[in-house]
Design goal:
Blueprint: H1 13-45, H2 51-65, E1 69-74, H3 81-90, E2 110-113, E3 121-126, H4 136-141, E4 147-150, H5 156-163, E5 169-173, H6 174-179, E6 184-185, E7 194-195, E8 201-205, E9 207-213, H7 217-220, E10 223-227, H8 231-236, H9 238-247, E11 250-256, H10 263-272, E12 286-291, H11 303-321, E13 328-330, H12 333-342, H13 345-351, H14 353-406, H15 413-454, H16 457-473, H17 477-520, H18 533-545, H19 552-557, H20 560-592, H21 595-619, H22 625-664, H23 668-671
Parallel strand pairs: 1-10, 1-11, 2-9, 6-7, 11-12, 12-13
Antiparallel strand pairs: 2-10, 3-4, 3-9, 5-8
């Protein structure tokens, strides 16, 4: 008889905490979205914005609408990673969902998610797709490539049985394994790769990638779980490190307590998880699970001896990984799962799984919120600054016009003529400078085109093609080292040139806005600088992460084609992403740099034209000074009211952003240094 259960009737600790966090985060997102929509409607009604501003509003609303949360589990094989996922997320299913056992189980990267538009199923991408040059995100769109196993989400046996296919392996020739870009353990000194048997055959996974679509309560709320099968898979699948691991809101790195940090564990950590940031935020989104503490429960060691061994391993791990000990959790995934299956609260507490669950849940939302806040704040600052300047200057123009008309209380023809000539002169001068600006705009456009070309994909692809060609022709490891180093030198040169070009464009823009300010009293709009330095830092991190490709031992023991393929798949893909983002930032910057000033110049020209028409009507006796003053006073009151309304919207939005930033600030007590190791809040109790 198949077992039927409704996992939604009972909730794990992770679900309970995450549900609370997600609910609070959703309320905040809804509040910000509503405030942004209200501001957009208000500014549009007052004719303060243009098409580009509304595109910025759409981008802000898009960032707020994105509800995806991702947590990645990373480990070498035999660390208990699949069991960890079963325990934390599927403990209430009363059965193992993901395949788990000794040795290599899940051999392909796996994503667990939920899309209500797709059937409950396991979709498997054949390993032969490695020959396809397309990126993984493109292969995901080609449904015909995938093998699909559907299951009944309400039948635990059906779900579990469908998952078993992910463990399929097959024997292939050594030559075919190389064709699929697998590293092999052919040399005595080789440390990474798949073993070759006595018949020159290699056991490889049948599947390259798995996507599980499951209506789990957390997955339904946008959570995506990424299960990665060790260094071999990560190295061979660069998109894991470039996109999915890099964008995961929380990463759980799993080690075995009995071995601690092995050489391959350390390489995995250093190459793919460490060194993203520096300073306070460094590694804050990463947790380490020291699994299999139950190996110490042998009935011989005392509780104190067990705790001392755990403490020593936590300290050693923290030192090796340069990680805060509070982010390291000694646990037993297997005992935690047993405890949940048997509803043994004492064993569950002893496994220390609840502490890890609490840490995962407490880090996911803050990381997501921090990313969203950065996107929203940057876009809103530009919008609010531009709108504020326009409304300030409208009020200033109205005040000046009222002051002019008050001089005409006795309808003196000479004074009227003088004011009319003055306004006409200001209008003509502005129009003349607007024409001159159009000529400068051509120079500006030429310079911005140069910047785009410096960061273009075509330029990068040429460099990649030349580098790959040169690598294939290298006759020694020394020339291969030099070729790889030259590639990174060129990347830095491209970015340095782009930084200089962006600074020249900014200087040109500052001169233009300064001239308009001096000649026409227009507010000096702050020219935002393009910050490309962060992409140089990413290139430097990329070079450090892949420094093993230039290591003499790596070059000696691996075939040249293997190094070239690894370089192309990992380094080149990452470089494409870096330059693609840099180009996107540069393009947006180019398109929006002069928009605030251009918008206000048009606005100022319109106000001058209206002032001139007003004085002309008075001059022709079609209007009286009193009538026009009365109209302007009403308009002034309306502008003051609009400005007050705008300030209210502005205060509301900045308050919501500040609220999120305050929530993301680390607890002062937690961050305070101490002579003691402060991980006792999740210390195992025996």
């Amino acid at each position: 008889m198949p077992s039927h259960t409704d996992p939604k009737t009972s909730k794990t600790v992770t679900e309970q905490i995450l549900n609370t966090e997600i609910e609070q985060y959703s309320e905040w997102r809804q509040s910000v979205s509503q405030a942004v929509q209200d501001l957009s409607t208000f500014l549009k009604a007052k004719n303060v914005t243009d098409l580009r501003t509304h595109h910025q509003f759409e981008n802000v609303l898009g960032a707020l609408a994105d509800d995806n949360l991702s947590v990645a589990f990373v480990a070498e094989f035999s660390r208990g990673k699949s069991e960890m996922i079963n325990t934390i997320f599927f403990g209430n299913y009363k059965k193992r969902i993901l395949p788990s056992g000794s040795g290599r189980t899940t051999m392909c990267p796996t994503e667990l998610m939920y899309d209500p538009n797709l059937p409950s199923s396991v979709r498997l991408l054949p390993i032969e797709s490695r020959k396809d040059e397309r990126a993984l995100f493109e292969l995901k769109k080609d449904r015909e490539l995938w093998h699909e196993i559907k299951f009944d989400a309400d039948d635990v046996d059906s779900v579990s049985d469908a998952m078993q296919g992910m463990t399929d392996n097959k024997l292939v020739s050594k030559a075919y394994a190389k064709e699929l870009k697998f590293d092999l353990l052919e040399e005595k000194n080789a440390e990474l790769g798949l073993p070759v048997n006595e018949y020159d055959e290699v056991e490889i996974p049948s599947w390259r990638h798995a996507i599980i679509n499951l209506p789990h309560p957390l997955l339904e709320q946008g959570l995506v779980i990424l299960d990665t099968p060790g260094l071999n898979a990560i190295g061979a699948e660069p998109e894991l490190t470039i996109n999915q691991l890099a964008t995961a809101h929380t990463v759980v790195f799993i080690l075995s307590l009995d071995t601690g940090v092995t050489a391959t564990d350390l390489e995995l950590w250093q190459q793919h998880l460490d060194g993203e940031k520096s300073g306070v935020d460094r590694n804050q989104r990463k947790l380490v699970a020291l699994n299999k503490i139950d190996a110490l429960w042998d009935g011989i060691r005392s509780d104190i001896e067990i705790q001392n061994e755990i403490d020593a391993q936590v300290r050693a791990t923290a030192k090796t990984l340069n990680l805060d000990p509070r982010n390291i959790f000694p646990v037993s995934a297997q005992k935690g799962l047993v405890a949940k299956l048997t509803e043994d609260d004492e064993l569950l507490a002893k496994s220390n799984i609840p502490a890890l669950e609490n840490a995962i849940a407490s880090k996911l939302i803050p990381e997501k919120r921090k990313i969203v806040v950065e996107k929203v704040r940057g876009a809103l600052e530009t919008i609010l600054e531009s709108a504020s300047s326009i409304m300030d200057n409208r009020l200033k123009d109205a005040d000046e016009h009222i002051a002019e008309l008050k001089q005409l209380s006795s309808k003196n023809t000479d004074v009227i003529s003088h004011i009319m000539l003055k306004v006409q002169g200001e209008k003509s001068s502005l129009e003349k400078d607007m024409q001159r600006y159009q000529a400068l705009r051509a120079v500006y456009s030429k310079e911005t085109t140069k910047l785009v070309q410096m960061l273009s994909g075509d330029r990068l692809e040429k460099l990649i093609a030349i580098t790959k060609h040169n690598m294939a022709r290298c006759a020694s490891s020394i020339t291969l080292q030099k070729t790889i180093s030259k590639f990174f030198e060129r990347l830095n040169y491209y970015l340095d040139s782009s930084i200089n070009q962006a600074n020249e464009i900014a200087a040109l823009s500052e001169n233009i806005t300064r001239d308009f300010e001096q000649d026409h009293g227009i507010a000096n709009f702050k020219v935002r600088r393009l910050r490309l330095e962060k992409f140089k830092q990413e290139v430097n991190r990329l070079e450090v992460k892949h420094r093993h490709l230039k290591d003499t031992r790596t070059l000696f023991f691996r075939e040249q084609m293997s190094i070239t393929n690894r370089f192309y798949d990992s380094v080149c893909q990452a470089a494409r992403k870096i330059f693609s983002q840099a180009l996107r930032d540069a393009t947006n910057w180019n398109n929006n740099l002069m928009v605030p000033m251009e918008t206000y110049v048009r606005e100022h020209h319109t106000q001058l034209r209206r002032r001139l028409e007003s004085v002309k009507r008075i001059h022709k006796a079609s209007d009286t000074v009193e009538q026009r003053l009365q109209e302007l006073t009403v308009m002034q009151s309306q502008l003051v009211e609009q400005h007050t309304q705008f300030t209210t919207y502005q205060t509301q939005l900045t308050g919501l952003i500040k609220e999120a930033e305050e929530q993301n600030k680390p607890n002062e007590k937690e961050e305070s240094p101490s002579a003691d190791i402060l991980y006792w809040d999740h210390k195992v109790n025996f």
